[in-house]
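During the no-cost extension, the postdoctoral fellow (Dr. R.K.) reprocessed legacy sequence entries with the updated structure-token encoder. One reprocessed record is reproduced below for audit purposes.
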Amino acid sequence: MRFTVALDGPAAAGKGTIGRAVAAHFGFAHLDTGLLYRAVGVQAMQDGRGVIDPDWAGEIARRLKPEDLGREGLRTRIAGQAASKVAALPEVRQALLAFQRDFARREGGAVLDGRDIGTVICPAAEAKLFVTASDEVRAQRRWKEEGGEYAAVLADLRARDRRDAERTDAPMVAAADAVLLDTSDLSIDAAVAEAVAHVQSRFDAVRG
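Re-encoded structure tokens follow.
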């Protein structure tokens, strides 16, 4: 059986947590596609000594292996900033397209979370959710995870949102047929319950 769940939304909206929980509930495989871009971005920054070369970033993306997603340092704020920069490069996005689509159509079902899953990577996904939350709530969550100055975290999130939404290639936008899930005032359990209920309804519909 092949069944794809596409979860999109901005940083710190909760889509990763929801994605892992949905995958565990249904026994599906899970892919945090942001790790792909974080891995490419971190390597490109290291190789360029702080400067990202678009051609080299594309080459890194073409060489990316599943084991590269387990490297240390991919959950830091710096890695997130690097990911947002390389994600705006068409050569990087194209190089990672096949990796994501192959994962999405694997036997046994798959959940992918990112920013363009339901619109570009898997437009025919059986279930789609766009997970969001207010800027302030998302910044508070990220600040609790990473520390630092709250104002700086908020500014970083807003800058990243602008880059993700305004890029010409695969911008972050909710698919027309995606269900909106605003987690601003929801507990983790409540948000997961809503997501599971939607996926279950789509799963039942596909199975007839």
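The two ends are 14 Å apart (CA to CA). The longest strand covers residues 127-132. The remaining legacy entries will be reprocessed before the final report is submitted.
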